[in-house]
Design a protein that fits this description.
The chain is α+β, with helices and mostly antiparallel strands and 137 residues long. Helix content is 18%, strand content 44%. The protein has one domain: Thiol Ester Dehydrase, Chain A (Roll), CATH 3.10.129.10.
């Protein structure tokens, strides 16, 4: 399906004392890459409509399999593939490589299209045709 690629440098604060990126930061990098992907399609992870309704794509699943460590100052290439757009949800695959083109990790996120109902309820909705068209463009 749709693929998007971005890069991000591993900063000192992303690493442990051995200079290896902490596993939790792969999830932060996935979220950042997802946000960039959506922006290129005129979308966001969360937004308000003109009449004040909050919409968005909260995550319902996230996983990452690690193959090699990412290290301080590595420039990671993150390839985002939108693997599936269902009625209410979408699933991403994230492939991480370093500047030597070594495979580091593969992550996945599933997000569901929702609206927030005050005071604090969330309701899943079918992905509207206009949003679906932007995702699949």
């Amino acid at each position: 399906m749709t693929t998007f690629t971005t890069t991000r440098r591993v900063e000192f604060g992303d690493t442990d004392m051995a200079g290896i990126m902490h596993f939790s930061n792969f999830f932060r990098f996935m979220e950042s890459a997802e946000t960039e992907f959506l922006r290129t399609r005129g979308l966001s992870v969360s937004w308000y409509t003109a009449d004040g309704v909050k919409l968005g794509f909260p995550r319902v699943s996230a996983a990452c399999d690690f193959q090699k460590p990412a290290r301080f100052e590595d420039v990671l290439t993150i390839s985002v593939t939108l693997e599936k757009v269902g009625e209410k949800s979408m699933s991403y695959r994230f492939e991480f490589t370093n500047q030597r083109d070594e495979a580091l990790a593969v992550g996945r996120i599933t997000a569901v299209f929702c609206r927030t109902i005050p005071p604090n309820q969330i309701e899943s909705l079918a992905i509207p045709a206009d949003i679906r068209a932007k995702l699949e463009s």
